[in-house]
Amino acid sequence: MRLLQLRLHQFRSYEQLTLMPPPGITILIGENGAGKTNLLEAIHLCCLGRSHRTSNDRDMVRLGSSTCAVHARVARTSVQDEVGVRLFAAQGERKIVFVNGKTVQRMGELMGHMTCVMFSPEDLDLVKGAPKGRRTFLDMLLSQSQAAYFYALQHYNAVLRQRNALLKEIARNKAQASMLDIWDEQLSKAAAPIVIQRRDAANAISDLATDHYSFIANRKQERFFMRYQGSLMDSLDPEADMRKRLAASREDDLRRLATGPGPHRDDLQLMLSGNDMRSFASQGQARTAALAMRLAQIDILTRAHQETPLLLLDDVMSELDEGRQARLLVRLDRMQTLLTCTELSGMQNVRPSCVLTVKDGTVKA
Ligand SMILES: Nc1ncnc2c1ncn2[C@@H]1O[C@H](COP(=O)(O)OP(=O)(O)O)[C@@H](O)[C@H]1O
Ligand SMILES: [Mg+2]
């Protein structure tokens, strides 16, 4: 896939900007705070309808403006697509998503028109951080692969919210515990496709990431793999087992006012040579594992769409030694890439098509 044009209007530090990145690697160079990550974030927004670093859309609207918009034109093998997102500063205003000139009603309709994989310094949290980051990794990957997953996840989350709201009503004697029956049924049905697809994806990603890890690390003695973890991880019939688990935890749930079992608590266990990386990995190992997971994400998206995603590399090169940097670039070959850095020194392995300087809300050759 190729990004032909990106247009920003009142987005973060940018008043107006049009960017037309060439094929190959574009280096975006600039001081800290210059606005480099903002550009990658805008691309991520067009791909997934949300930022990679904030869950609050309003953060992206330029201070002093009531609205912002991002618009992208991409070329795929046989088609060109235009996608856009408009956000509002006012609370309660819903974002507007456009695909090929038409406003779409459901966010899922955006998925797949434009796909990206973002490498960022925060990826260390994939390895070292809380389970939520790893769930998001799986969810973003699956949502970009197939919009049906995104809808299934939205549905699960909606049912979960309803069940949790009902738990609170019951605690205040505003509803009867027996009313949980229908939500348990709904939640069990909604959980099954999430569990099955996450488990399949985790296995597929693990196989790919094992290979990427040993290539990037260049150390045969370290073996990386990952394992899907959750209350239904080994279940042959997740719907039936979820129903049983909900019944068993009903009393606990009523006491804690939250739903215990289910994929909203899932995790990925990352293992290196038999040890759980969350507690054992060095900084370098964690960084390599995160790269391996992102490379696997590229493979899965390429397979799903018969097209390579756009690669967004935010400040990751400077963190890598020369060998790892060179080997990473081998695996990224021939994909359109936007890469940010604060200085060109240490980038001798990179062969850019174009180097742009980011400064004061502008981008110049
Ligand atoms: N909503 C906003 N309105 C105006 N400026 C913003 C907004 N959000 C962030 N910025 C500015 O963007 C800059 C940070 O941009 P960023 O892309 O993260 O920098 P970097 O080049 O280090 O990646 C800061 O100067 C910040 O003040
Ligand atoms: Mg940055």
Give your account of this protein's structure.
By secondary structure, the protein is α/β, with parallel strands linked by helices. The chain folds into two domains: 1-115 and 307-365, P-loop containing nucleotide triphosphate hydrolases (Rossmann fold, 3-Layer(aba) Sandwich); 123-304, RecF/RecN/SMC, N-terminal domain (Glutathione S-transferase Yfyf (Class Pi), Chain A, domain 2). 41% of the residues lie in helices and 23% in strands. Helix 3 crosses helix 4 (147-171), helix 5 crosses helix 6 (238-248) and helix 5 (180-217) packs across helix 9. It starts with a strand and ends with a strand. Bound molecules: adenosine-5'-diphosphate (ADP) and magnesium ion. The site of adenosine-5'-diphosphate (ADP) has 14 residues, from helix 1.
